Amino acid sequence: MAEVVAIKPAVADGPVLATQDMGVLRLTLASPPANALSLAIMAALQAEFDRVKADKSVRVIILAASGKVFCAGHDLKEMTAHRAEPDRGRAFFEQTFAACANLMQTIVRHPKPVIAEVDGLATAAGLQLVASCDLAIASHEATFCTPGVNIGLFCSTPMVALSRNVSRKQAMEMLLTGETIDAATAREFGLINRIVPREYLNQVVNKYAQTIASKSSLVVKTGKEAFYAQAEMGLADAYAYTGRVMVKNMLARDAEEGIGAFIGKRKPEWTDE
């Protein structure tokens, strides 16, 4: 039976529900209808990601949502309420965007692979959340947009994650028009990996998660870290860096075991060392 943990920083029923089963931690945004990224929900997510960084029982993380909206971005009502303060909300705005930036970077730098399971609308910082995950699998009903330009607030921070997933022209198309794209277009742009019928979404995502969870967690951690690090380097530096990573990886016990198992035509037994 899956272990169930409720995270309750601010809401009685909790803005995030955590369930763990067979090495996979599922984090579900549980604040419908919008699942907006309030400070409370970002704190709950941050706490969960931080909690399992060194937890060997967690090998993969799935990020999902309840309701018809995956995530509507920042909680604009929460932010607007602070405009009445003497600084017109500046301190709260800075706190909100800093918390969001930290959360997104935590996902990218996290040692565990993170898969977004998207069913419904992912808009603004909600799209940023999807783009920050390592993989994203969506239902046919999923839609995506960066509509800030329509309300006088350009999606500058979501732009960081978006522009690291799709081409510049495609990113600017979304950012300048604010128009919503469907799942097929999102896949064409490179924002998501796969599109599946809604009734099979959970099954497909779990299959991806279990496939990754069956690998050496040391090797997966090494590869994820190297992927994002080399992406920020020039060509020569990237090859020099990944060469060092390969040497270190070759000296790991799991590489010795995996190569030995391949040569011996047997199933490897990982020690995650």
UniProtKB/TrEMBL annotation:
Q: Which Pfam families would you find in this protein's record?
A: ECH_1
Which keywords does this chain's UniProt record carry? Fatty acid metabolism, Lipid metabolism, Lyase, Transit peptide
Highest taxon of the source? Bacteria
Q: InterPro entries from the entry?
A: ClpP/crotonase-like_dom_sf, Enoyl-CoA_hydra/iso, Enoyl-CoA_hydra_C, Mitochondrial_ECH-domain
The keyword Secreted is assigned to this record? no
Recorded GO terms, molecular function? enoyl-CoA hydratase activity
Carries keyword Lyase? Answer: yes
Q: Which family does it belong to?
A: Belongs to the enoyl-CoA hydratase/isomerase family.
Biological function? May play a role in fatty acid biosynthesis and insulin sensitivity.
User: What is the protein name for this chain?
Assistant: Enoyl-CoA hydratase domain-containing protein 3, mitochondrial
Species of origin: Mesorhizobium album
